[in-house]
Design goal:
Shape: elongated
Structural class: mainly alpha
Number of helices: 5
Distance between the termini: 66 Å
Radius of gyration: 23 Å
C-alpha cells in the first residue's frame, strides 16, 4: 500500500539523527502517524510550490493536537522504525484505522445522498399537496 512507502520514506529521512527509545504510547503513535498520512494526502492536493508550507502548517497542528514536539515525533518514529515487529503492529493499526475512516466517510456520503433523495421526495410531495390545495380553492 502507498501509505507504507510514504511512512518508510518519512522514517528513513530522519534515520541520520541520533535515536532514542520510543516514549509515546502505541495509541498516540497510531493517531499521530494516521494524522501525518492524512496531512500528507491533503497537502498533495495543493500546487507543488505551496506544499512545503502547507506541510509545515499541518505538522504544527499535529504537534499541537497530540501535545508533542517535532523532535519527539522524529525520535519516536526513528526508534519505531528500528523495531520491526512493533513497527508492523503499529502500522497495521494505522492502515486499519485509515481504512475504517474511509469506509465511514463513504457510508456517510451515501447516507447524505439517500437523505438528499428523501428530502427531495418530501419537498416534491409537499409541493404537490400545496398545488392541490390551491386548485381546490
Amino acid at each position: 500500500m502507498n501509505w507504507f512507502y510514504i511512512f518508510g520514506l518519512f522514517c528513513f529521512c530522519f534515520s541520520c539523527q541520533n535515536s532514542n527509545e520510543i516514549t509515546l504510547s502505541d495509541e498516540v503513535l497510531i493517531a499521530l502517524i494516521k494524522d501525518l498520512h492524512v496531512a500528507e494526502s491533503a497537502a498533495s492536493s495543493y500546487p507543488n510550490s505551496e506544499q512545503v508550507e502547507i506541510k509545515k502548517q499541518y505538522l504544527a497542528q499535529i504537534c499541537s493536537i497530540h501535545n508533542v514536539s517535532e523532535k519527539e515525533i522524529d525520535i519516536n518514529l526513528q526508534a519505531l522504525y528500528k523495531e520491526e515487529d512493533h513497527y508492523k503492529m503499529v502500522y497495521d493499526s494505522v492502515i486499519s484505522l485509515l481504512n475504517a475512516e474511509e469506509k465511514s466517510f463513504y457510508k456517510a456520503s451515501e447516507m447524505d445522498v439517500e437523505d438528499a433523495k428523501s428530502d427531495k421526495a418530501l419537498l416534491e410531495m409537499e409541493e404537490k399537496l400545496k398545488n392541490k390545495a390551491i386548485k381546490k380553492r
